Fold this protein.
Amino acid sequence: MNSHSRTQRSDGIRSREAILDEAARLATVAGLDGLSIGRLADAVGMSKSGLYAHFRSKEELQLATIETATAFFFSRIVEPAQQAPDGLGRLRLLLDGFLDYVEGGVYPGGCFFASVAAEMDTRPGRVRDSAIRLSLQWIQLLADAIRDAQAEGSLHAGEDADQLAFELNAYLLLSNAQYVALQNGMPIARAKSAIAARLAAAGAAPKA
Amino acid sequence: MNSHSRTQRSDGIRSREAILDEAARLATVAGLDGLSIGRLADAVGMSKSGLYAHFRSKEELQLATIETATAFFFSRIVEPAQQAPDGLGRLRLLLDGFLDYVEGGVYPGGCFFASVAAEMDTRPGRVRDSAIRLSLQWIQLLADAIRDAQAEGSLHAGEDADQLAFELNAYLLLSNAQYVALQNGMPIARAKSAIAARLAAAGAAPKA
C-alpha cells in the first residue's frame, strides 16, 4: 500500500489489521469483555455498521483480537529468539524480549495475555481457551530452551526445567503487573536482577 | 444475632456484610466494573431498590467491596502472621497464608487484589488507588518481615530486602494466576518449592 492509498483509507475505512491492533490496545484497558463493537467503532473512528462488515459478533471480534495479539507476540519476541545459536541464548532473548515488550508500552495495560488471562480465567468458553493457550505455549517455550541449555551443558542438569521456567516467568509477570500499576522502571530492573541471579545459581555463565 | 433472626433475614434483607462478601466474590469473576447494582441484586436475591438503600452509587459499592476484601485479607492472613515470635516466622506465615487463601477458594477468581489490580491498573480514580493500596502494603509487610529476620540473623544481611520481597511475591502471584486458570494444585506446589529454595539461599534454616 502506498502513502496515497493510506491517506484515502484514513477517512473511514481502516484495514482489518489496524482495527485489530487498536482492539488489542483497548482490551488491555477496558478488558476483552469491554471490547464492544460500539466502543471499538468510537476508538477507530468508524461506524458500527462498518465494523460489522469485518466482525459479525463480539465473540468473533474477541477471538480475532487474540489472534492478532498472538501474531504480534510471536513476531516481536518468539521469532527473534529462534535466531539464538543455543538454548541459553534463546532463553535470554525470550526473557529480555518480554521485558522490552512490557517496557516498550505496546499495550497500555501491559502484556496483552496477562491482561486477558486475568480477566477471562473464570469464564469458560472459546475466548478463555484461546487467551490461556498462549500463556501455556509461552511456559513451554521457556522450559524447552532450559532443557536445550541443560543438554548443551550451559545450565545444571539437576535443575527441574519446569520449576525453573515457573520461577523465571514469575519475575516477568510480577514485573509486568507492577510496571503497569506504578509506571516506573523499578519492577523491570528487579526482574532483570532476579533473572540474572537465578540463572547464575542454575550454572549459567554471566551474560556476554 | 441469634439463629432465629438470621432465618428471618434470609427472606430478602441481607446484612451489609453478607452483601459485600458476595460482591467481592462476584468482582473476581465479572470484574469490579462488572459489579453493577443490578447484577449484585440478582446474586444476593434482593431488589435493586433494597441494594440502593445500602449503596448510593456503583463507585460507593466498589469502594465498600474493596474495604470488605481488605478486612478479610488482614484477618485471614496478616493478623495471624503477627503472632509469630520472629521475622522469619512471620514471613513464612504471610507466604503460606497467601497460598492457603488462594487454594482455599475464598474467591472463584483467586486473590481479590490481584484480580482487581489487573482490571483497574489503567483506570485512574479512587477505585484504582484503593485497589492498588493493599498490593503495596503487602509488599511492605513482606519486606519488613525480611528486614526483621536479617536483624535477627536468620536471613543473610547482604540480601536486598526489597528485591527478595519482589521475588517471593512473584512466586505467589504466578501461582495465584495459574491456579485459577488451570484448577490444579501444581502451581501452589511450585510456589512452595520456589519459596523454600529461595529462603534457603538467603540463609534460612529449613522450616521446622
